[in-house]
Amino acid sequence: MSDAAAAATPIDTDLSEVSDWVALLKPRVVSLVLLTGICGLLVAPGRLPVALAVAAMLCIALGAGAAGAINMWYDRDIDAVMRRTKSRPIPAGRIAPGGALAFGVGLAAASVAIMGLATNWVAAATLGVSILFYVFIYTIWLKRRTPQNIVIGGAAGAFPPVIGWAAVTGEVSVYPVILFAIIFFWTPPHFWSLSLYAHADYARAGVPMLPVTRGARETRKQVLLYTLLLLPISLLPSLLGYAGPFYAAVAGLLGAGFVYHALRVWRDRQDAEGRSLTGDAPARRAFRYSLAYLALVFLAVVVDRLVLR
Q: What's the further remark here (predicted)?
């Protein structure tokens, strides 16, 4: 080994270890959580000092990441048998389970404490409830017991705009609850689209996702039904006077696009047992669209509030 290679090896090792700890936080999930939390903070009446606003956003991100780390610790057995998760740091043996649990619990406690000290204890309590809900209600109780795991457990991911709003106002009101409802009804078609093409993984791990317990045909129908429910709910901010015509137009167009993708999922060509004959291409496109949909709807909320009103 050359001197240069020998010198680089410890650094490379250190960076890979850091990336494994970051991976425990589920950064892609955290990015959406943070976006919706920031939107809640920005549309709330009043303003926080910049330093406290940054602290609140950091706490939302750390709290979501902490819940993800604890989820990976608890699910390490099923992650090890699922193709899309077997290379995660714990099942791959790169991080010890006990270390991951301590990491997650420590970050969770720190995020709640800092939120309370930096903003207020209503926001801190809401953040704490969201972490506990994700860990105990979704991960430990629902995920391995019922195909409704995503429907009920999806509430955990819907808290961020409520937390952001509470960080500014010290209370919870109707508007952030509507934003909560948008994420809540978005979650089932988002995750069920994923589960349609990852159903073999869930079946192998014994996770009762809807395609495993009720079949792909029923799952496609539920994707469409929840997407149809989401469309009017997404328009409530404008219908109730919290947002203007710009938001209504954006939400309506994005919602129509989501319905289009859900219809494609529902009408996907299937064999006699309901399995896709197209490699679940419509479900994959619906899943990708759902990610863009949520981000753009919440950005429209902010533009409507800060730029156009």
A: Carbon 2 of the heme B porphyrin ring is defined according to the Fischer nomenclature.
Buried b (16+ CB within 10 A) or exposed e, 33-44: bbbbbbbbbbbb
- Burial label, 215 (beta-carbon count in 10 A; 0-12, 13-18, 19+): middle
Q: What is the pLDDT of residue 112?
A: 98
Distances (CA, A) of 268 to 102, 230, 262: 44, 21, 10
Q: How crowded is residue 212: how many other Cβ atoms within 10 Å of its Cβ?
A: 20
Do 231 and 265 have their domain in common?
yes
pLDDT in tens, 265-290: 999 877 766 667 777 899 999 999 99
Pick the closest to residue 187 from 233, 218, 144 (CA basis): 233
Here the tokens at position 73 are 């610790």
Residue ranges of the chain with per-residue pLDDT less than 70: 1-15, 272-275, 309
Q: Structural domain of residue 66, as residue ranges?
A: 20-149
Residues near 72 by Cβ (< 8 Å), separated by ≥ 6?
Answer: 24, 26, 79, 88, 89, 90, 100, 104
- What integer pLDDT is reported at residue 17 of this predicted model? 86
Instruction: Give the separation between CA 14 and CA 128, rounded to whole angstroms.
Output: 32
Residue 165 backbone phi and psi in degrees, to 5:
-60, -45
Indicate the burial class of 245 (C-beta count within 10 angstroms; 0-12, 13-18, 19 or more): exposed
Structure tokens at 269: 């060509």
Neighbours of 229 (CB within 10 A): 15
Q: What pLDDT, on a 0 to 100 scale, did the predictor assign at position 10?
A: 57
Across the chain, mean pLDDT equals 92
Note whether 143 and 178 are same-domain residues: no
